[in-house]
Specification:
Elements (H helix, E strand, L loop, with lengths): L6 H34 L2 H9 L1 H22 L3 H33 L8 H26 L2 H31 L4 H33 L9
Helix pairs in contact: 1-2, 1-3, 1-4, 1-5, 2-4, 3-4, 4-7, 5-6, 5-7, 6-7
Protein backbone atom coordinates (compact mmCIF):
# COMPACT_ATOMS: atom_id res chain seq x y z
CA UNK A 1 0.00 0.00 0.00
CA UNK A 2 2.87 2.38 0.84
CA UNK A 3 6.46 2.53 2.09
CA UNK A 4 5.71 3.68 5.63
CA UNK A 5 8.30 2.58 8.17
CA UNK A 6 5.60 2.09 10.81
CA UNK A 7 3.45 -0.73 9.45
CA UNK A 8 0.71 -0.07 11.98
CA UNK A 9 0.15 3.27 10.22
CA UNK A 10 -0.59 1.37 7.00
CA UNK A 11 -3.03 -0.74 9.03
CA UNK A 12 -4.76 2.45 10.20
CA UNK A 13 -5.13 3.71 6.61
CA UNK A 14 -6.39 0.31 5.41
CA UNK A 15 -8.97 0.25 8.21
CA UNK A 16 -10.20 3.73 7.29
CA UNK A 17 -10.44 2.79 3.60
CA UNK A 18 -12.34 -0.37 4.47
CA UNK A 19 -14.83 1.45 6.68
CA UNK A 20 -15.45 4.08 4.00
CA UNK A 21 -16.10 1.30 1.46
CA UNK A 22 -18.49 -0.41 3.91
CA UNK A 23 -20.33 2.83 4.62
CA UNK A 24 -20.52 3.60 0.89
CA UNK A 25 -22.07 0.20 0.20
CA UNK A 26 -24.74 0.73 2.88
CA UNK A 27 -25.53 4.28 1.66
CA UNK A 28 -25.82 3.08 -1.94
CA UNK A 29 -28.22 0.27 -0.95
CA UNK A 30 -30.31 2.69 1.11
CA UNK A 31 -30.92 4.91 -1.93
CA UNK A 32 -31.56 1.87 -4.13
CA UNK A 33 -34.08 0.38 -1.69
CA UNK A 34 -35.75 3.76 -1.08
CA UNK A 35 -36.37 4.26 -4.82
CA UNK A 36 -37.62 0.67 -5.11
CA UNK A 37 -40.07 1.22 -2.23
CA UNK A 38 -41.31 4.42 -3.92
CA UNK A 39 -41.79 2.80 -7.32
CA UNK A 40 -43.51 -0.31 -5.91
CA UNK A 41 -45.31 1.63 -3.14
CA UNK A 42 -43.93 -0.86 -0.65
CA UNK A 43 -44.51 0.78 2.73
CA UNK A 44 -42.82 -2.02 4.67
CA UNK A 45 -39.63 -1.59 2.62
CA UNK A 46 -39.83 2.20 3.06
CA UNK A 47 -40.01 1.84 6.86
CA UNK A 48 -37.06 -0.60 6.80
CA UNK A 49 -35.00 1.87 4.75
CA UNK A 50 -35.67 4.72 7.18
CA UNK A 51 -34.56 2.49 10.08
CA UNK A 52 -31.19 1.77 8.41
CA UNK A 53 -30.10 5.38 8.84
CA UNK A 54 -29.00 4.61 12.40
CA UNK A 55 -26.34 2.18 11.10
CA UNK A 56 -24.92 4.83 8.77
CA UNK A 57 -24.73 7.37 11.59
CA UNK A 58 -22.85 4.84 13.73
CA UNK A 59 -20.33 4.16 10.94
CA UNK A 60 -19.85 7.91 10.41
CA UNK A 61 -19.06 8.34 14.10
CA UNK A 62 -16.62 5.39 14.09
CA UNK A 63 -14.77 6.75 11.04
CA UNK A 64 -14.47 10.19 12.62
CA UNK A 65 -13.08 8.71 15.84
CA UNK A 66 -10.61 6.52 13.93
CA UNK A 67 -9.40 9.42 11.75
CA UNK A 68 -8.90 11.78 14.69
CA UNK A 69 -7.06 9.08 16.65
CA UNK A 70 -4.81 8.33 13.66
CA UNK A 71 -3.91 12.00 13.24
CA UNK A 72 -3.13 12.31 16.95
CA UNK A 73 -0.96 9.18 17.02
CA UNK A 74 0.88 9.44 13.69
CA UNK A 75 0.97 13.20 13.02
CA UNK A 76 0.86 12.61 9.24
CA UNK A 77 2.08 15.10 6.64
CA UNK A 78 1.38 15.84 2.95
CA UNK A 79 -0.42 12.99 1.10
CA UNK A 80 -0.84 10.94 4.28
CA UNK A 81 -2.65 13.82 5.94
CA UNK A 82 -4.75 14.40 2.80
CA UNK A 83 -5.88 10.74 2.88
CA UNK A 84 -7.11 10.95 6.44
CA UNK A 85 -8.83 14.31 5.98
CA UNK A 86 -10.39 12.88 2.80
CA UNK A 87 -11.82 9.96 4.78
CA UNK A 88 -13.48 12.45 7.13
CA UNK A 89 -14.94 14.47 4.24
CA UNK A 90 -16.14 11.41 2.33
CA UNK A 91 -17.76 10.00 5.46
CA UNK A 92 -19.78 13.24 5.80
CA UNK A 93 -20.87 13.05 2.15
CA UNK A 94 -21.94 9.42 2.53
CA UNK A 95 -23.88 10.19 5.70
CA UNK A 96 -25.79 12.83 3.72
CA UNK A 97 -26.38 10.39 0.84
CA UNK A 98 -27.99 8.04 3.37
CA UNK A 99 -30.12 10.91 4.70
CA UNK A 100 -31.33 11.54 1.14
CA UNK A 101 -32.20 7.84 0.81
CA UNK A 102 -34.18 8.13 4.05
CA UNK A 103 -35.98 11.20 2.65
CA UNK A 104 -36.95 9.31 -0.53
CA UNK A 105 -38.36 6.49 1.61
CA UNK A 106 -40.40 9.10 3.51
CA UNK A 107 -41.73 10.40 0.17
CA UNK A 108 -42.98 6.85 -0.45
CA UNK A 109 -44.64 6.75 2.99
CA UNK A 110 -46.36 10.07 2.27
CA UNK A 111 -48.05 8.46 -0.73
CA UNK A 112 -49.48 5.45 1.11
CA UNK A 113 -52.91 4.53 -0.28
CA UNK A 114 -52.67 6.87 -3.27
CA UNK A 115 -52.81 5.62 -6.85
CA UNK A 116 -50.60 7.08 -9.58
CA UNK A 117 -49.90 6.50 -13.27
CA UNK A 118 -46.95 4.13 -13.75
CA UNK A 119 -45.38 6.38 -16.37
CA UNK A 120 -44.71 8.95 -13.64
CA UNK A 121 -42.21 6.53 -12.13
CA UNK A 122 -40.15 5.92 -15.26
CA UNK A 123 -38.24 9.20 -14.97
CA UNK A 124 -37.49 8.57 -11.28
CA UNK A 125 -36.20 5.06 -12.05
CA UNK A 126 -34.00 6.37 -14.88
CA UNK A 127 -32.58 9.14 -12.72
CA UNK A 128 -31.90 6.66 -9.91
CA UNK A 129 -29.98 4.39 -12.32
CA UNK A 130 -27.70 7.26 -13.37
CA UNK A 131 -27.06 8.67 -9.90
CA UNK A 132 -26.42 5.24 -8.36
CA UNK A 133 -24.00 4.46 -11.19
CA UNK A 134 -22.22 7.74 -10.38
CA UNK A 135 -22.00 6.78 -6.72
CA UNK A 136 -20.73 3.24 -7.48
CA UNK A 137 -18.03 4.53 -9.85
CA UNK A 138 -16.97 7.10 -7.25
CA UNK A 139 -16.61 4.45 -4.55
CA UNK A 140 -14.63 2.27 -6.97
CA UNK A 141 -12.38 5.26 -7.76
CA UNK A 142 -11.79 5.76 -4.03
CA UNK A 143 -10.73 2.15 -3.52
CA UNK A 144 -8.53 2.18 -6.64
CA UNK A 145 -7.14 5.71 -6.05
CA UNK A 146 -8.13 6.47 -9.66
CA UNK A 147 -8.29 10.22 -10.33
CA UNK A 148 -9.32 9.70 -13.98
CA UNK A 149 -12.53 7.88 -13.00
CA UNK A 150 -13.16 10.60 -10.41
CA UNK A 151 -12.84 13.24 -13.13
CA UNK A 152 -15.29 11.34 -15.38
CA UNK A 153 -17.86 11.20 -12.56
CA UNK A 154 -17.70 14.97 -12.11
CA UNK A 155 -18.22 15.54 -15.83
CA UNK A 156 -21.26 13.19 -15.79
CA UNK A 157 -23.02 15.33 -13.18
CA UNK A 158 -24.31 17.71 -15.87
CA UNK A 159 -26.45 14.84 -17.23
CA UNK A 160 -28.09 14.35 -13.83
CA UNK A 161 -28.82 18.08 -13.53
CA UNK A 162 -30.38 18.13 -17.01
CA UNK A 163 -32.52 15.09 -16.18
CA UNK A 164 -33.79 16.71 -12.99
CA UNK A 165 -34.79 19.86 -14.91
CA UNK A 166 -36.63 17.68 -17.45
CA UNK A 167 -38.50 15.82 -14.69
CA UNK A 168 -39.39 19.11 -13.02
CA UNK A 169 -41.11 20.30 -16.20
CA UNK A 170 -42.83 16.93 -16.70
CA UNK A 171 -44.27 16.74 -13.17
CA UNK A 172 -45.34 20.38 -13.34
CA UNK A 173 -47.29 19.62 -16.50
CA UNK A 174 -49.07 16.69 -14.83
CA UNK A 175 -50.05 18.92 -11.91
CA UNK A 176 -51.42 21.64 -14.19
CA UNK A 177 -53.41 19.10 -16.20
CA UNK A 178 -55.10 17.54 -13.18
CA UNK A 179 -55.00 18.93 -9.60
CA UNK A 180 -55.49 15.38 -8.28
CA UNK A 181 -51.87 14.74 -9.34
CA UNK A 182 -50.45 17.49 -7.11
CA UNK A 183 -49.70 15.40 -4.00
CA UNK A 184 -48.15 12.53 -5.96
CA UNK A 185 -46.12 14.80 -8.26
CA UNK A 186 -44.93 16.99 -5.39
CA UNK A 187 -43.50 13.95 -3.58
CA UNK A 188 -41.95 12.65 -6.79
CA UNK A 189 -40.38 16.06 -7.39
CA UNK A 190 -38.89 15.93 -3.90
CA UNK A 191 -37.57 12.43 -4.61
CA UNK A 192 -36.02 13.63 -7.90
CA UNK A 193 -34.37 16.52 -6.05
CA UNK A 194 -32.99 14.10 -3.45
CA UNK A 195 -31.49 11.99 -6.28
CA UNK A 196 -29.98 15.10 -7.85
CA UNK A 197 -28.35 15.85 -4.48
CA UNK A 198 -27.01 12.26 -4.32
CA UNK A 199 -25.27 13.06 -7.62
CA UNK A 200 -23.84 16.23 -6.06
CA UNK A 201 -22.39 14.28 -3.14
CA UNK A 202 -20.88 11.71 -5.52
CA UNK A 203 -19.27 14.68 -7.29
CA UNK A 204 -17.95 16.05 -3.98
CA UNK A 205 -16.39 12.68 -3.19
CA UNK A 206 -14.86 12.47 -6.68
CA UNK A 207 -13.31 15.93 -6.24
CA UNK A 208 -11.86 14.83 -2.90
CA UNK A 209 -10.34 11.72 -4.51
CA UNK A 210 -8.77 13.86 -7.23
CA UNK A 211 -7.27 16.16 -4.61
CA UNK A 212 -5.84 13.29 -2.56
CA UNK A 213 -4.22 11.72 -5.61
CA UNK A 214 -2.85 14.87 -7.29
CA UNK A 215 -2.55 17.44 -4.52
CA UNK A 216 -4.54 19.87 -6.69
CA UNK A 217 -8.21 20.78 -6.91
CA UNK A 218 -10.08 20.02 -10.12
CA UNK A 219 -10.35 23.75 -10.78
CA UNK A 220 -6.54 23.88 -10.95
CA UNK A 221 -6.19 21.08 -13.50
CA UNK A 222 -4.83 21.89 -16.98
CA UNK A 223 -7.53 22.37 -19.65
Amino acid sequence: MSDHIVSSYDDDLRELTGRIAEMGGHAERMVEEAVSSLVRMDMSAAHATVAKDALINKLDQEIEEKAVLTIARRQPMAKDLREIVAALRISIDLERVADLGKNIARNALALEGRSHPKQLMHGIEHMAEITLDQLRRTLDAYTAHDENVALAVVQKDREVDALYNSLFREFLTYMMEDPRNITVCTNLLFAAKHLERVGDHATNIAETIYYVKTGHTMDDRPL
